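Lab notebook page, bench 4
Experiment: in silico fold of construct C2
Operator: M.H.
Input chain length: 281 residues
Purpose: comparison with the prior construct
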Amino acid sequence: MRYCKAIIILLICTAISCTTEQADSLYPVNDAQAQAFYTSTLKNVIDTKCISCHIYHVEGNNRYDNYEKTKSNIVQMVSRINSSSNTVMPPADATQLTEEEASYFQEFLDLLNADDDTPEPRVQIEWTAYKYPDYDNRAGVSGTFDTVTYTFNESGNTPVSILEDAIVTVDASSVNVGNESERTQNVFTFFAAFTPDIVGTVTSFTDTTVTIDFEMNSITTTQVFAVTILSDRLVLTGSIPDLSIYNWDAGYDALEAVCGEYHENKLWEDVDVTIDILLEE
């Protein structure tokens, strides 16, 4: 049985980490083939078709100017390239990737996954939160959750039918910021004062969108995320536009107390979210 990486977008609420780098080590260290392919092939495509837009942050989730940044964002990049919604990249007014160039991103992801003999979890969630007071220069910080439970519809005959009445529950205490203990502990203080669980319940879906009720701190809101159907997985992408709606004050204050100076006493309310559902062949 082959597991494949996928991202189902689900709530991910989180506060920003307190250092100036994002999570870069989401794949195994033994990735020599992937690095060689990046240097010989993929880097040139990124430099000519992507970097003019994705170098504008001093740091952050959307800057793809080196191998580590590309590696830690490749799942989202593949998703956006294959998207059928307005999240597709490159955007319509930019120079488009050729079919061959687009295939390089998937090949790079396959090389990264090939080096890892550890079975993929059925569901993975990645979040990106933002720090610094100047919106134009704010920086993204990314992380994941290690403990996710779920209920899916396993009887459907289409890829998206797995979403019917789906429920995903995140143990917020299992937050992981790039396997870096200090950064993870700092963000853990946010969740320790905020919410023990994050629950996402799918209420409707199509081949292009999914509507999810997110519950945190006993408050529920509804968000719509984009769906991308790939040959081996679903990818849902979106954001929680205003985390403060969930009464995040206690968590915000707890994080501010341990590392407010590192993010210049500013955490932005919006959080980008990706959640990974593994499909079976």
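Observations: The chain is about 25% helix and 25% strand. Strands lie at 123-131, 139-145, 148-151, 167-171, 175-176, 197-205, 209-216, 219-229, 233-240, 271-278.
Next step: discuss at group meeting.
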